[in-house]
Amino acid sequence: MLRGHRERLGTRKGTRALGVFRQAVLVLRWFVDGTRLAQLARDNGISVPNAYRYLHEGLTVLADHAPDLSTALERAAAAEDLVQETLERACRTWRRIAVADAPDAYVRRIMVNLANDRWRRFRRTVPDRGDRVAPGNEYGQVGIRDQLVHALRQLPMRMRTVVVLRYFHDLSDAEIAADLDISPSTVRS
Question: In the chain, helix, strand, coil percent, each to 5?
Answer without folding.
Answer: 75, 0, 25
